From TrEMBL, chain A:
A GO biological-process term: transmembrane transport
InterPro entries associated with the record: MetI-like, MetI-like_sf
Protein family according to the UniProt entry: Belongs to the binding-protein-dependent transport system permease family. CysTW subfamily.
Membrane topology value: Multi-pass membrane protein
UniProt-recorded name of the protein: ABC transporter permease
TrEMBL record, chain B:
PROSITE patterns noted in UniProt: ABC_TM1
Transmembrane segments: 12-33, 67-89, 96-116, 136-160, 181-203, 238-259
SUPFAM superfamilies: MetI-like
Membrane topology (UniProt): Multi-pass membrane protein
Record keywords: Cell membrane, Membrane, Transmembrane, Transmembrane helix, Transport
Source species of the chain: Chromohalobacter moromii
BP terms from Gene Ontology: transmembrane transport
Cited CDD domains: TM_PBP2
GO cellular component: plasma membrane
Main location: membrane
Gene3D superfamilies (alphabetical): MetI-like
Full protein name: ABC transporter permease
Keyword Lipoprotein: no
TrEMBL record, chain C:
GO molecular function terms listed in the Swiss-Prot or TrEMBL record: ATP binding
Gene3D superfamilies: 2.40.50.100, P-loop containing nucleotide triphosphate hydrolases
Protein name, entry field: ABC transporter ATP-binding protein
Coiled coil: none
Length: 307, 265, 285
């Protein structure tokens, strides 16, 4: 009897053994993530192209209704509500990211100027609040900004808000909540960048340029760019999809994309519309990651940026 | 002269930021001891809200759910994540790009998309088969899914930090494949296993969005309970639970600081 | 083949071979005692017995007081010795030492070379010592096997391999540079770029090897059999000896001369190189 197949050599047997080992170790987790995340996400994307049925559940036939609804086309003609929500999400993300940078930059620098043995403790002080549940943190701000609290009274007496309205719920409260939530994510990478700062370059710059502002701009800032970029990824992407903070601090007029999406699966059910919003969020996430990778590579700090 | 102004300015910004970071937490703790039913005016010190807390069966249940969820999901994720971490290490010279993408997916996916994907999927499967009734089971599945990558990455980086000849040495000293796992690999990566477990546990306890969408009517966790309590109307009772949770976090912070110091020695 | 058995197909954990690794590969999560006992434990020896064996071996390598330390509290030399003891304790048929000393500095290295030799003599165990350093190979071995790309080139006693290498690879590996192509031969008279030389045992190789330390340098031009006239192109004075690069026609020849306080030729001086016929070896490429 003759076999046309190759005779198994010691080498090919070892290959088979290694492949079996790879499957044995990696398969359970890979299958888990595939079944419980890849398939569900794929299904969700499919739902976006289905029609909204009674009780908000998806139905055949396939259509682009959900995307039209997302763009504001309804039974009563076009309304700008969803578009406002989208723009508000972008605006809140932008403003809170910029504010986070403005606060985190000096804070991270301040920590590097402290004695070495204090630095881990100072960093811990910045990080610890973010270990508490985000619902509790948002609730803390509700307590602080509610009508009748000292902060709200101050704002009222300055004429910033209408009497007895309080600072929350409002868009301002959402911005505050976002800054509060994401500040540590910016401080940590910036701190890492500052710690690696090449002080020789800074001294050279101080010799070469007359003003400290120019020295900063030419010697310090470029060196912290990779950290800044990493921080921006860590802040802007989750901020854009934030659900808890606008829900608790924003009220009806503070809604962001996350709330629009979530609501389609709770009260005012419309799964296809929610799924379409989720696709939008995914696109934004991947564009963000992709852009940061590209810029990161150009800066040479690629590895740090890829989280 | 100018330098000193800069240093003072920085210190000022630091203290203001610290105040900003801790003020909301402080207010929660303070008003949890308020005798009045108000979160704006502090009247007298009182433990009344805590007494009410321990009589509230829903809260005790939610606390139990949180613990069961965190412990069981962390154990499952530890086993699965460890296997992946080791597989990634052993086969690191192969092209495993697809695996890396798969592992990073749960990390980069926005919480809300993660949560609703799971929810729609579970609901659909339940419709077709009657399996996966929303409840603790579905929550555990969802939590394991986002914990696996963290465990895998921690274990992988621990293995990468080892001298590769250690594996040869274990074989050389008569350890059979099973004994290699029991007497060499597991003890060697023990610190990584401990920190992976605690990270998984913290991620699970801390999660709200994904739990919220995968929970059933009987399986509310503490954050979900707090959420619905807030939605019903703010009461100082919420301050009391929140204070307990903040206390737990503060303890964890102190422990991690001490643990870190010992680790460095 | 170990003890007459082919072990290629036996998995490593069932072979009676133990290894001392270049990086020592001591288990970082175990104490020195647990490291030493690892192999015994894997083979199922009871704890009490392991304990006495560990104490014995620790005394044997004179590190008894280190046994209860942690691995990361040891110096390089101590780790090396523990790695050796960890392999020896299993009493293998063959001990494999994979460049065990290459991570140590020169002084410690030669000290441990002597120590290893003593251990080996006392135990009478077969040591397979892998090294890239031919000096170390010659010091440590009874027999040397020179490998190139996985195939054995020559096996023999150190003197044999050094003085009678079978091919150019072995010769170069043992540090020989004076290799010349034989362009023609008349019985035992070999013609090379250096000139005509007579060898006692001309063999049939196409390369001629002249070892630098076998050469005598005579001042001036002296006629005679196997005498070559040369000019000193370079001199490296090394205290105990001096190395010369000599120009003969268009080629050069290396010579090493012991410094016995006599005249050492200067650069540019004309000298005569006397070659003993019995020191010439021919070999294949």
């Amino acid at each position: 009897m003759s076999y046309s197949g190759a005779v198994p050599t010691a080498r090919s047997r070892a290959m088979v053994r290694e492949t079996r080992h790879l499957l044995f170790t990696v398969a359970p987790g890979a299958f888990w993530i595939f079944i419980f995340l890849v398939l569900p996400s794929a299904y969700l994307m499919g739902v976006a192209f289905m029609t909204n049925g009674p009780y908000g559940l998806p139905q055949m036939p396939l259509s682009l209704d959900a995307f039209e609804r997302l763009a504001g086309v309804g039974f009563l003609g076009w309304s700008p509500g969803n578009l406002y929500t989208l723009l508000r999400s972008l605006w809140q993300t932008l403003v809170s990211t910029v504010l986070v940078v403005i606060v985190a930059y000096p804070v991270a620098y301040y920590i590097t100027t402290c004695r070495e043995k204090w630095r881990p403790i100072l960093l811990l002080l910045v990080v610890v609040p973010s270990w508490t549940n985000q619902v509790i943190r948002a609730f803390g701000w509700m307590n602080l900004l509610a009508p009748g609290t000292p902060l709200s009274s101050l704002a009222e007496s300055l004429g910033l808000v209408a009497p007895n309205m309080g600072l929350y719920p409002s868009n301002l409260a959402v911005t505050l909540g976002l800054v509060y939530n994401f500040l540590p994510f910016m401080v940590l990478p910036l701190y890492a960048a500052f710690e690696k700062l090449d002080t020789a370059q800074v001294q050279a710059a101080q010799d070469l340029y007359a003003s400290p502002v120019r020295a900063f701009w030419h010697a310090v800032f470029p060196q912290t760019l990779p950290g800044l970029l990493a921080g921006t990824v860590l802040v802007a992407i989750p901020a854009f999809g934030m659900y808890v903070i606008p829900e608790l601090l924003g009220g009806g007029k503070g809604m962001m994309l996350g709330n629009l999406v979530a609501n389609q699966f709770a009260g005012s059910s419309n799964w296809p519309l929610g799924a379409a919003g989720a696709i939008l969020m995914l696109i934004a996430t991947f564009i963000g990651l992709f852009a940061m990778r590209r810029i990161g590579k150009r800066l040479g700090g690629g590895e740090e940026v890829v989280i | 002269m100018r330098k000193r102004t800069l240093a003072r300015g920085l210190a000022g910004i630091w203290w203001v930021t610290l105040f900003f970071l801790y003020a909301p937490l402080f207010v929660i703790v303070l008003f949890s001891f308020n005798s009045a039913n108000s979160t704006a005016v502090f009247e007298n010190f009182s433990l009344a809200w805590y007494r009410r807390l321990f009589g509230n069966e829903q809260i005790i249940n939610a606390f139990g759910n949180s613990l069961v969820l965190a412990v069981s999901s962390s154990i499952i994720a530890l086993v699965i994540g460890c296997l992946i971490g080791y597989g990634m290490y052993r086969h690191r010279h192969r092209k495993l790009g697809w695996l890396i993408v798969l592992i990073y997916l749960p990390i980069v996916l926005p919480d809300i998309v993660f949560g609703i994907s799971e929810m729609t999927f579970f609901v659909q499967i339940h419709d077709w088969t009657g399996l996966l009734q929303p409840g603790l089971g579905t929550m555990i599945i969802a939590h394991v899914t986002f914990q696996i990558p963290f465990v895998a990455l921690i274990v992988y980086s621990r293995f990468v930090g080892l001298d590769p000849t250690l594996f040869e040495a274990a074989k050389d000293l008569y350890a059979s494949p099973i004994k290699r796992v029991v007497h060499f690999m597991v003890p060697t990566i023990k610190p990584a296993l401990i920190s992976a477990f605690f990270l998984s546990f913290t991620l699970s306890i801390d999660d709200f969005v994904i739990s919220f969408f995968t929970a059933g009517p009987e399986s509310a966790t503490l954050p979900i309970y707090i959420w619905s309590a807030i939605k019903k109307g703010v009461t100082p009772e919420i301050n009391a639970i929140a204070t307990l949770m903040i206390g737990a976090v503060a303890m964890a912070a102190i422990f991690s600081m001490l643990f870190n110091r010992q680790g460095r020695r | 083949m170990v003890g007459g058995k082919n072990i290629t197909e036996t998995p490593p954990h069932q072979r009676s071979v133990n290894t001392v690794f270049q990086s020592y590969a001591l288990f970082p999560h175990l104490s020195v005692r647990e490291n030493l006992a690892f192999g015994l434990k894997m083979r199922g020896m009871p704890a009490a017995e392991r304990h006495t064996k560990v104490d014995e071996i620790a005394d044997f390598i004179k590190l008894g007081d280190l046994v209860d330390r942690h691995v990361d509290q040891l110096s390089g030399g101590q780790r090396q010795r523990i790695a050796l003891a960890r392999a020896l304790i299993c009493e293998p048929d063959v001990l494999l030492l994979d460049e065990p000393l290459s991570a140590l500095d020169a002084g410690l290295r030669s000290q441990l070379q002597v120590e290893l030799l003593r251990v080996q003599k006392r135990l009478g165990m077969t040591f397979v010592f892998v090294t890239h350093d031919q000096q170390e190979a010659m010091v440590m071995s009874d027999r040397i096997a020179v490998l190139n790309g996985g195939t054995i080139q020559q096996v023999g006693a150190p003197r044999e391999v050094y003085e009678r290498p079978v091919n150019a690879f072995v010769a170069r590996f043992m540090g020989h540079d004076n290799l010349y192509t034989i362009s023609a031969r008349k019985s035992d008279r070999l013609i090379t770029a250096l000139g005509e030389l007579t060898a006692e045992d001309a063999g049939n190789g196409e390369l001629l090897l002249i070892r630098p330390e076998t050469l005598d340098l005579l001042p001036g031009a002296v006629e005679g059999p196997n005498h070559l006239t040369a000019t000193v192109a370079e001199r490296l004075y090394r205290g105990s000896h001096a190395e010369f690069r000599l120009a003969i026609g268009n080629t050069t020849l290396q010579a090493t001369v012991n410094n016995r306080g006599r005249h050492l030729p200067e650069v540019g001086e004309t000298v005569t190189v006397a070659v003993a016929p019995e020191d010439l070896v021919t070999l294949h490429e």
